[in-house]
Amino acid sequence: MSRNTTRQEIVAAADDLFYRQGFDHTSYAHIADAVGISRGNFYHHFKTKDEILAAVIEKRVADRVAMMERWEIAGATPEKRILSFIDILTVNGDKIMQYGCPVGTLTSELAKLNHAARGEANRLFGVFRSWLARQFAAAGCEETQADQLAMHLLMRSQGVATLLNASHDTQFAAREIELMREWVGAALAPIGDRARSGKAA
Question: HTH tetR-type domain location, by residue (predicted)?
Answer without folding.
Answer: 4-64
